[in-house]
């Protein structure tokens, strides 16, 4: 029996034995409440809120070490810096909960930026519609190949990552052409302006995560996402449309990566091919650090947002320390990721009976 089967079998089996609800679907309510098992043990608290506790501790320590670190200006800088990676992490959360992975979001993010900048000459609608359509199609292609052709997510998304990179180079004339957002684009103030000192992208991210939380926890499709990640075979036996659920998750991931890339291009005023390099690893790290299990079946979008904010805060702290470069942020992020995965394995063993 594989690790995925061991961690995912309990929830569907409990669900199947619970009375009530047509087709046995009522039991998914417990999974959809955040992917957490029933009960309020300390183990569950750590898994759900551990990243938040660490974030508060990091911010408190930084406030003591650096004057003005918790000032509105610096907090806005952190929040805006985390905004676009957070949108990618939101889509990645759905994919990972299904038990998959999406390595293509980094180049999809960069491709969306180039397409948005190129299309901006035709107006704001084109600057959004073109990259979102293309990136959603790339995500759908990922889902179809994974769910219908039953190919490994790692291989499929690696292939589409390379394909998106090639398409981005073709659009930008081998990377030599930089498209600039024209002055007067109606979308620009909606991305670059502030309200009460906070950048508009921050409010957009909060709205997206609120919608994502409702979608994941309060809808039938969200329950199906948890069921597929918990135990795909059991979910299929219970009538869950496994293939459609996976395709929708990857399509959403591509769409959100495209949205992040388009908004990032408008924010910066141009689309450059180097944007997005490595951001898929940051998104995966943030999702896992936020408490979502890599094996699937457990996770929540709020944890992913906390994970992104934690990594962004660490980067700002490292930048504030004289003599340290941003390369140290990658070292710290990697150490955090290893620590979280080890903790997840330990907590999973504690939950497992026997």
Characterise the protein shown here:
The protein is built from 16 helices and four strands. By secondary structure, it is mainly α. The model is unreliable at 1-34 (pLDDT under 50).
Task: Considering the chains and any ligands shown, give keywords for the structure.
globular, ABC transporter involved in vitamin B12 uptake, BtuC, 354 residues, two-stranded antiparallel ribbon, single chain, mainly alpha
End-to-end C-alpha gap: 16 Å
Shape: globular
CATH class: Mainly Alpha
What value does the Rg take, in angstroms?
Answer: 20 Å
How many β-strands, per DSSP? 4
Topology as a string of helices (H) and strands (E): HHHHHHHHEHEEHHHHEHHH
The number of domains is: 1
Instruction: Indicate the CATH topology.
Output: ABC transporter involved in vitamin B12 uptake, BtuC
Main beta sheet, described? 2 strands, antiparallel
Q: Strands of the largest sheet, in order across it? A: 1-4
Which residues sit in consecutive blocks of at least 5 with pLDDT less than 50? Answer: 1-34
Q: Helical element count?
A: 16
Helix content: over 70%
Query: Structural class, from helix and strand content?
Result: mainly alpha
The CATH architecture comes to: Orthogonal Bundle
Percentage of β-strand residues: under 5%
């Amino acid at each position: 029996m594989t690790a995925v089967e061991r961690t995912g079998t309990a929830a569907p089996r409990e669900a199947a034995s619970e009375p009530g609800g047509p087709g046995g679907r009522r039991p998914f309510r417990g999974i959809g409440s955040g992917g957490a098992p029933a009960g309020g043990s300390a183990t569950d608290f750590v898994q759900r809120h551990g990243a938040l506790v660490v974030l508060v501790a990091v911010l408190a320590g930084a406030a003591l070490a650096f004057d003005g670190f918790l000032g509105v200006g610096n907090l806005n800088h952190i929040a805006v810096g985390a905004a676009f990676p957070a949108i990618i992490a939101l889509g990645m959360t759905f994919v990972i909960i299904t038990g998959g992975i999406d390595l293509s979001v980094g180049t999809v993010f960069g491709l969306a930026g180039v397409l948005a900048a190129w299309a901006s000459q035709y107006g704001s609608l084109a600057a959004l519609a073109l990259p979102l359509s293309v990136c959603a199609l790339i995500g759908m292609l990922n889902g179809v190949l994974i769910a219908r052709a039953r190919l490994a997510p790692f291989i499929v998304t690696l292939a589409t990552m390379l394909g998106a990179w090639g398409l981005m180079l073709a659009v930008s004339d081998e990377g030599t052409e930089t498209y600039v957002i024209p002055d007067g684009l109606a979308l620009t103030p909606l991305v670059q302006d502030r309200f009460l000192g906070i950048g508009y992208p921050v409010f957009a991210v909060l709205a997206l995560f609120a919608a994502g939380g409702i979608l994941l926890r309060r809808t039938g499709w969200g329950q199906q996402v948890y069921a597929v990640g918990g135990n795909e075979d059991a979910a299929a036996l219970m009538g869950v449309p496994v293939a459609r659920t996976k395709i929708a998750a990857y399509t959403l991931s591509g769409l959100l990566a495209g949205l992040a890339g388009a908004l990032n291009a408008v924010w910066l005023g141009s689309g450059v091919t180097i944007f997005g390099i490595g951001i898929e690893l940051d998104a995966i790290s943030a999702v896992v650090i936020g408490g979502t299990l890599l094996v699937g079946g457990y996770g929540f979008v709020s944890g992913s947002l906390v994970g992104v904010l934690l990594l962004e805060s660490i980067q700002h702290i490292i930048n504030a320390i004289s003599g340290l470069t941003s390369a140290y942020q990658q070292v710290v992020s990697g150490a955090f990721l290893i620590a979280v995965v080890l903790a997840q394995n330990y907590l999973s063993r504690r939950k497992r009976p026997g």
